[in-house]
Specification:
heterodimer, A: 303 residues, alpha/beta, Rossmann fold, 8-stranded mixed sheet, 4-stranded antiparallel sheet, globular, B: 285 residues, mainly alpha, MetI-like fold, 73% helix, 0% strand, elongated, binds adenosine-5'-triphosphate, binds magnesium ion
Chain lengths: 303, 285
């Protein structure tokens, strides 16, 4: 890595709950993410994989400062975001975007999709009037949508089309970094490949870096240069994609790999007991150690 | 406009409500131009005359009868609708604007503003509305402006509570987060992303409120706190006529009927309007 990373995350923490209820009972504290650290280079894709509730979305939101992390640092192209106020963050919002998990609730049902896609340009005063219309039409074409759809409302679109609309909005300001939160999970299998290809094409054309969130490893294989595996709010293993597939070190990573459907029925998979998440809560203080170049595993489970 | 009428003609109930409402409003607006007897001048020789079709087009006819001082009921109904409709619609729109804005503010911002506003609502809900209205009108004196203010005051909390609840769930929707992600200001999010999504519930509350406010306005007049005599209003007519209910049924039946029909037309039309403004049902038809 000669270039500085586009995103550099260090020791990110975020917990929910705490405090007391009206009756004075203590609410349990959920450590949604705990000591999360990673870097993403310009134009790179880092996959973030883990089961439901492991803190992937929380990580995405905290990195973009959509909600403030409790502790830790996030640097965008060298600038520390955590010390900036809402106003201070605004110029950086141009360069970092998010694509949400549910394409249905991600669109404003009462806003025509053309206006929705063009909104970032209006908010940042980049474009207006007829040049805005032209730019939005261009964005529609870029994501494979007919520009004549601009004056329609979201409910007229399928899941795949909605996700394209979300993508068009996210790239409107030509960001350098996008958090894609399970962008294909909610879609039909037949559509998933198309959207993955769209992500790839846009990355080639625009030089985007992605934090690509998914809940199983098969989805990230072809899109990501590196993969981080998350368990109960902690990254337990992080390595280049081939390395994860060839030499998984953490038992949870292995169980995720074993869960990938095998297309070849002749290939026999070794039987191993299912991974018990409850019995393997990663300890809070355990450090990540580098077992081979660029391959990190949480200390408690190195094998 | 043509789309509006086309869509409307497809809904029987909506069309009925709309036509009825147009007739009521047109009568109210055109009242001075109609050749009606003076609604404030009585004719003591014709006190409590019953409804009659005889001599309908002759000058002295009283098709819906007369009241206890011989004033023509039809004329009083039509002239009275001006006051009733103006007071009720102003109050509902005023309460609707205030309630919707405060509901959005409380729901989206949360925290101190939310707690303050919701306590205010709770306090107001704990006091019977009629008592509140009586207190305020008694304190400020009975005038049309004060009646409008009082009715709006009883109305805003209904909007605010429902809108706030809507906003609480909208706030968590991903398109609102997405608006934050692009750096949209709080004002922009509240008015461009939240507001259009609560207009439908606001409209529904509005039609219900219009009906309620018409009745409450009648009740205030009935108690002598609304429109002052001799200006006609539906509530006044009910109040004055109730004494004669057993002997001259027409004195209360017709104003009562006018209230019912107006409320009905507003509700039917409001139902249709709600569907019309929902982009989903609009194109599904
Ligand atoms: N706003 C919130 N309030 C309270 N708890 C929350 C909130 N958001 C997330 N959590 C909790 O934090 C933990 C991590 O949630 P998160 O949404 O980040 O998981 P995830 O990995 O994205 O899961 P999924 O695959 O289901 O999207 C969960 O236990 C969740 O219940
Ligand atoms: Mg999630």
């Amino acid at each position: 890595m000669t270039q500085p990373p586009v995103i550099e995350v260090n020791g990110l923490m975020r917990s929910y709950g705490g405090g007391r209820t009206l009756l004075g009972r203590e609410k349990p504290v959920i450590h949604a993410i705990n000591d999360v650290s990673f870097q993403i280079a310009e134009g790179e894709t880092l996959g973030l994989v883990g089961e439901s509730g492991s803190g992937k979305s929380t990580t995405g939101r905290a990195v973009l400062h959509l909600e403030r992390p409790d502790a830790g640092s996030v640097r965008f192209r060298g600038t520390e975001l955590s010390t900036l106020g809402q106003q201070g963050l605004k110029p950086y919002r141009k360069h970092m975007q998010m694509i949400f998990q549910d394409p249905y609730s991600a669109l404003n049902p009462r806003m025509k999709v053309g206006r929705f896609v063009g909104e970032p340009l209006v908010v940042h005063g980049v474009d207006s009037g007829s040049s805005l219309q032209d730019r939005v039409a261009e964005l529609f074409k870029l994501v494979g949508l007919d520009p004549s759809f601009m004056s329609r409302y979201p409910h007229e679109f399928s899941g795949g089309q909605r996700q394209r609309i979300n993508i068009a909005r996210a790239i409107a300001l030509q960001p350098g970094f996008i958090v894609a939160d399970e962008p294909i999970t909610a879609l039909d299998v037949s559509i998933q490949a198309q959207i993955v290809n769209l992500f790839q094409d846009l990355q080639d054309q625009l030089g985007l870096a992605y934090l690509f969130i998914a809940h199983d490893l098969s989805m990230v294989r072809y899109l990501c240069q590196r993969v981080a595996v998350m368990l109960r709010g902690r990254i337990v293993e992080m390595a280049p994609t081939e390395q994860i597939f060839a030499d998984p070190r953490h038992p949870y990573t292995r169980s995720l790999l074993a869960a990938i459907p095998v297309p070849d029925p002749d290939r026999v998979r070794p039987d191993r007991p299912p991974f018990d998440v409850a019995a393997n809560v990663p300890p809070r203080e355990a450090p990540l150690i580098e077992v081979s170049p660029d391959h990190f595993v949480l200390d408690h489970q190195v094998q | 406009m043509t789309h509006f009428l086309k869509d409307l003609s497809r809904s029987r109930a909506g069309l009925f409500g709309f036509v009825l409402l147009v007739v009521i409003v047109a009568l109210a607006l055109l009242a001075p131009l109609l050749d009606l007897p003076d609604p404030t001048r009585g004719d003591l020789r014709a006190r409590l005359a019953g409804p009659t079709w005889q001599g309908l087009f002759s000058p002295g006819a009283h098709p819906l009868g007369t009241d206890e001082v011989g004033r023509d009921i039809l004329s009083r109904l039509i002239h009275g609708s001006r006051m009733t409709l103006m007071v009720a619609s102003t109050a509902v729109v005023l309460g609707g604007i205030v309630g919707t804005v405060l509901g959005i503010l409380a729901g989206y911002k949360g925290g101190f503003i939310d707690r303050l506003l919701m306590r205010l609502v709770d306090i107001q809900l704990a006091i019977p509305l009629m008592l509140l209205a009586l207190l305020v009108v008694a304190a400020l004196g009975p005038s049309i402006r004060n009646v409008v203010l009082v009715l709006a005051l009883t109305s805003w909390i209904r909007y605010a509570r429902i809108i706030r609840a809507q906003v609480l769930s909208l706030r968590e929707r991903e398109f609102v987060q997405s608006a934050r992600a692009i750096g949209a200001s709080t004002a922009r999010i509240m008015f461009l992303h939240i507001l259009p999504n609560v207009l439908t519930p606001a409209l529904v509350v509005g039609t219900l409120e219009l009906a309620r406010v018409i009745i409450m306005d009648a009740a205030l007049s009935f108690l002598g706190l609304g429109v002052q005599p001799p200006t006609p209003s539906w509530g006044r007519m009910l109040a004055d006529g109730r004494v004669y209910l057993s002997s001259a049924w027409w004195t209360v039946t017709f104003p009562g009927l006018a209230i019912v029909l107006t409320v009905l037309s507003v509700n039917l039309f409001g139902d249709w309007l709600r569907d019309y403004f929902d982009p989903k049902t609009r194109s599904a038809k």
